[in-house]
Amino acid sequence: MSTRLFPPQFADRSERGSGGRPCRRPAVVALESTIITHGMPWPKNAETARAVEADIRAQGAVPATIAALDGKLHVGLSDGEMERLAETKTAMKCSRADLAFALATRRTGSTTVAATMMAAEAAGISVFATGGIGGVHRGAQESFDISADLEELARTPVCVVAAGAKALLDLPKTLEVLETCGVPVVAYGTDDFPAFWSRSSGLPAPYRLDTPEEIAELLAVRRSFPGHGGVLVANPVPESAEIPTAEMAGIIDAAVAEAAKRGISGKDVTPFVLALVYEMTGGRSLDTNIALVRNNARLAARIAVCGARAGMDATP
Predict the structure, then answer these.
(1) What is the CA radius of gyration of the chain?
(2) Is 166 an annotated catalytic residue?
(3) Among 86, 112, 237, 281, which is disulfide-ready with 46 (CB 3.0 to 4.6 Å)?
């Protein structure tokens, strides 16, 4: 799988999907790796990563987990590489601004939504599954803490399937920035914008589509526009696994307040809040996180397969 936009010394150009097998099928789904290194504890992270890849294969697509290992950007990990990444305690959390440093200094790093989109485009992959995107943090009017994921969605032609934005964020402002950036936000099978652990944020979704075929058609039309960017497909967590907004709101507020009290800022906020929410929910938030990631992977695979069947070019 070619990472053609990266210098050869910094890119793993092996023709494989995760697991090291040949990867020449057109329906490929990119996967981020920050959820492995910073989003879940060992060994749940490795178990979930393997389950997500299996879910994608079961839908007829090929998974490609993306990470930087020893200064090379890998699009698709072997079982050994996946295990190594899941066990490491020293991986950098790499967004667009960090990736060049990680590669130049021969570091190992996991990719955020923004960096994964960047690498996916370079490899000719147009569909990407994640848990939830980053966005506008609470208090951003003072801190200016806004995730690079939003600008990446505006500039990079990759479809991101997520359970909305992470619920610890300012969701109304996140939707406003996405609109300003010209990013279509499409809810799958619902009129509401989901809130990660919860099926509804209480905010209306800008658009709704009900089938993978409809989403694939939207991507094909958008791909025909000059200078087009990405699309956010907001896929609510399965009802059986959700923690309702009414229950989560107070927990999230308390976790965000604790982060502020401890002076935690920047890219450290999300991992801290996720860990604290895990404690406060007695582990339920992790079960929900796993369910929504797997749900997003299955939908992303179906979208990729629909696009491939319709003869869409895998390269945006």
Answers:
(1) 18
(2) yes
(3) 86
